[in-house]
Amino acid sequence: MVAVTARLALLTLDRKTAKMDREDTTVVPMRSISAFGKEIPLQDLLDKYEKKLRKSPESPELLVGFANALRQIKRREDSVPFYERAIKNDPLTVEGYASLGEYAFDKGDLETAFSHYSKAAEIMDRGHYYRVRIDLDQFKEGLLDKLMMVAERLGRGLPHPGDARPGGEAPLPARPRPAVGRNQPCPCGSGKKYKKCCLLKESGQAPAPAEPAPRKPPAPDPVFQRLRKSLSRYVEREISRNDFLRATGIFWNIEPLEPIALPERASEDKGQFHDWFINDYRTVDGKTILEGFCDRRLSTLSAEERRLADSLMKSYESIYEVQAVREGEGLTIRDLFTGETMNVAEVSGSYEAVQWDLVQVRIYRMDGKCRFGGNGQIMPRRRIEALKAYLDNARRAFQADTGHPGWPAFLKENAFRIGRFFDESVDEPPMLFTEERHRIISSKAHFTVSDYGRARKLLSREYDFTDEEEIPSGGVSFSWLKRGPSKEWEMGPESDEKGVVATSSIVHPSGQMTFTVLGTVNLYPDRLILECMSRERLERGKKRLQDLMPGAIRHRIDEFEDIHVAMERREGKGEQAKPLKNEKARAMLASVMQKYMFAWPDQALPALGGKTPREAAATKAGREKVLEFIKDMENGEARKKKAGEPSIDLGPLRRELGIGRDEG
User: Fold this and answer.
1) For the domain that residue 357 is a member of, what is the CATH number?
2) Helices marked H in 186-321 — which ranges?
């Protein structure tokens, strides 16, 4: 067994060893070693390597093997040049960096150890492994455990995925500092607690957003308020009940009859119906209520109210994409239909909106400024293309019937059709698949337990069963992970194009390694329950448990439940995800998200015709699709940030694909 891999494996099995002193990490000499397919005395092994190296002196595999053999006979210093040569010939030699890190650590040189471990961790997913004889995931976990230990001793954070590194050079050393308690003053002198300052910066994650300071709402526009009150009185006195019923039927797409039975979406109305009723609905005389009001009451209005009424009569509702947000000032928005971009003086909306939101709202122009003429409504981005196609068909029919071309004329008369689209189009929940492309269904297998102690001991020894945790009723829970004996799976028949792949993972404390959760094992003194997300996982899990614990458990029965029903039932019980408040957990999640982001450009996507985003971005049409994906992700990250959840900046992703910040 290679010395370094044995040591790294030990670290993964017992996290407490991460606190060992370097004297405890001495490699024990062995008389023989397994190599080239058989047991070979170490001196004979060295002779074989020397002979092979004379023929292939620059082979990274032989150099690593020879260096490992030298370490086994305690010639550690002699092994260093061979690891260095292996790295020179193959810069992706993970074992070379890991072994040099181990050597530096044993000498007490934490800075050099940190540099080598960091490089090994940086390339571990794409690097080359020549002499690793244990499970590769265990090797990687051990490497990350050691890197975290060294980082903690140095008082610094881990390298962030995608951090720039000079080619082949170690980062400049940082001066080690004493350990600082989370609640102690930060050594940087900011006056903040360490956990609220540099602890998070070192972890690569911005601090959890503080509670927003109370903001004073903008004073209502007195002119707008006076005009609205006058219009409300006019409606009460002059507009018939029949007009109101007819307007209700048109807007909500219902029968205009008493008693009014409003649809479910009406519960989310924030004044949109009233705004449309006043400004766009035409009464039996063919005029809008605002137009009729001005005809009859114009003389009662001030000059400012007249100018406002004139601006509103020219306005219409549309859907706008938020290009930029200036909190406390306003927004830059673009009309999705006309393409017009404008700055809007909208203070309240600037505190609610984020970039790339789609907002249905009325815009009016007055005194050279654009303003919201009512409350905006956020639209779902994922359905916008279907909505645009739906409205475009209606616009063409409207133009043919009336002779009025263009989107403004159409939207002035037909903004209610936006709501009708959501009434008439059925938004079926997507089919959900596991990573193995099997249909997701809540699945449980029930077993009786005859030997609880033996069953628990066996589970706790297995690499694919982890995260042991005490649970009520005297039981213990394990997570069943896709690693070790459970790593390899045959892919199922389902296609990504038919649905959505859903997954659940646990994250290594470094944030640089994740494992898919295949299921959960709840072990009690008298019973065992295996819970999975597909029939196929359940069958595999049942076999794994029965092969592992023959005689200790006996299968009784399986049960299955539609996943959507199960989710609704859990939501009804209030079983919802809790926000992450622990700073380290936030930093870890952000690191995982960033790692995914850096891999995304080279992942083949069915929505791009099987191309990767990098490949698709080479054509104009493909670039537009990739840009929409990025905007969707940026919008989601902005929403997370506003909600105080971990989020990442997608600027590096744009740079990687050559898509500028100004594109969108």
Assistant:
1) 2.40.50.140
2) 198-202, 222-238, 241-252, 272-279, 289-297, 303-313
3-state secondary structure 388-432: HHHHHHHHHHHHHHHCCCCHHHHHHHHCCHHHHHHHHCCCCCCEE
Residue pointed to by tokens 């940082």: 174
Low-confidence ranges of the chain (pLDDT < 50): 1-37, 162, 164-182, 194-195, 199-208
Q: Could you give the CA distance from residue 71 to residue 2 in angstroms, rounded to a whole number?
A: 9
What's the CA gap between 452 and 120, in Å, rounded?
A: 41
Of 519, 550, 572, the residue that ends a domain is 572
Q: For residue 568, what is the enclosing H or E element?
A: helix 563-572
Per-residue pLDDT of 287-317, as tens digits, reads: 999 999 999 999 999 999 999 999 999 999 9
Q: Give the structural domain span for 646.
A: 583-657
> Residues 275, 373: contact at Cβ < 8 Å?
yes
Q: Are residues 343 and 239 in the same domain?
A: yes
Structure tokens at 259: 């008693």
Based on the domain organization, do 550 and 592 belong to the same domain?
no
Residue 47 sits in a domain whose CATH number is: 1.25.40.10
Considering the domain boundaries, does residue 392 fall inside one? no
Q: Can you name the residues that pair with 371 across neighbouring β-strands?
A: 364
The DSSP result for 111-143, as a single string, is HHHHHHHHHHHHHTTTSB-SS--S-HHHHHHHH
Same domain as 505, residue 447: yes
Question: Which residue type is seen at 372?
Answer: F
Q: Rounded to an integer, what distance in angstroms lies between the CA atom of residue 195 and that of residue 587?
A: 12
Q: How many CB atoms lie within 10 A of CB 53?
A: 17
**Using CA atoms, how far apart are residues 371 and 330, in angstroms rounded to an integer?**
9
Helix (H, G, I), strand (E, B) or coil at 661: coil
Taking alpha carbons only, the member of 407, 408, 354 closest to residue 376 is 354
Q: For residues 30 and 42, is the Cβ–Cβ distance under 8 A? A: yes
Q: Is 448 helix (H, G, I), strand (E, B) or coil?
A: strand
Are 315 and 279 contacting, i.e. CB atoms less than 8 angstroms apart? yes
Mind listing the pLDDT tens digit for each residue in 442-494?
999 999 999 999 999 999 999 999 989 999 888 999 999 999 999 999 998 87
Q: Are residues 13 and 46 in the same domain?
A: no
The verdict on residue 160 lying in a domain is no
**590 and 568 in a common domain:** no
Looking at residue 508, its pLDDT comes to: 86
Number of folded domains that form the chain:
4
Residues 238 and 319 both lie in one domain: yes
| Buried/exposed 223-254: b ≥16 CB within 10 Å, e otherwise | bbeebbebbeebbeeebeeebebbbbebbbbb
